[in-house]
């Protein structure tokens, strides 16, 4: 006999409306649905339209009759670029437009309609902490999901201490290579230049800086914190976080956890892309023709914007390296118009392949890939770790500066190229990664891959933590 809907758990998942955040939170939605929970996924109108345009999302999610999609405005016009250099605009519009609309939707019980149970809890993006107070007012527990690394979250958590100690703000006289002494557990490797990009504001009243400080401190008042990482990867940072936040769920890498669990159920064999651009699968055909571990894959993610000069430095470096390269150049990801110089055309034709967007997980798993030149976004970093692909890191903003330092200095699975964009350095790093030091990096990468795979296997740390999260959500339904 079917249970009445009032006896079922119903989770509202509410991501910050950009590609990387939507990507991993959609995977969590699938995982929760697979375990019998009802999930409403609240997306911005803009993001949802792009998902409908470029993915088979509704076809794939027919497997999950307990998954529902709702939309909410993000407050920006459709022609706004929504890139990393303009992300403060998104913060502001969410505060003025999305926040009051979200409150109205909850008060009207918009998400508890038809055959859906009442909301058990909210899982909200960790930089939208207004959900905590709104949830508390309506007696709905809120769990926050930070889509950044644990190490970056801990660096954010320590910002008040850095300011009090005089290590921030950064001024024109600051030595960017100075080791920081007030991020506990990271004193031996974290430099001023490795702090998240928001920390480079010379004015401590900067809107972006203040937002990440307040959002991180407010995490302590949430019902719990979810991180897309695993204990074996970021143990020291997680130990510090646990001292300050009692309910912590490390459940990553989520993209692998989803594949592993879905594969065990013959009724649920399909997962959906959550790409906001059309994936050009011709690059897979091109990769099939390349030698084993010979190609450098290049992607700067969904938010990075290059100058024309930076684009040209990268192109010169790739062509001059003599190595095959697959480069994702997202529409409008270069700030100015450009034309490939005549002297680079032949080398680009012979060894390069440029697409607007690629099926990244499949690309990184391809045997022809020998390295990944990345913006060091956390999803990309985890995907590369899982596939054992060494990285060259060129971070753009947010958490990416911390992640690139971990790759180069702590995990030793690549090279950190932050704050430089020079064709000679790019050429030499590509050669180092693909040729000179390939065995060194491959050995470290294989170890990390082994740890990642163990964490999401049955009885692994992330596998058990996801089970604990699901159990705790079901207990919330009973008022505990």
Automatic annotation (TrEMBL):
GO terms for molecular function: 7-deoxyloganetic acid glucosyltransferase activity; UDP-glucosyltransferase activity. Its EC number is 2.4.1.-. The keyword rRNA-binding does not apply. Keywords: Glycosyltransferase, Transferase. It catalyses: 7-deoxyloganetate + UDP-alpha-D-glucose = 7-deoxyloganate + UDP + H(+). It is an enzyme of class 2 (transferase). InterPro entries: UDP_glucos_trans, UDP_glycos_trans_CS. Belongs to the UDP-glycosyltransferase family. This is Glycosyltransferase. It comes from Nicotiana tabacum.
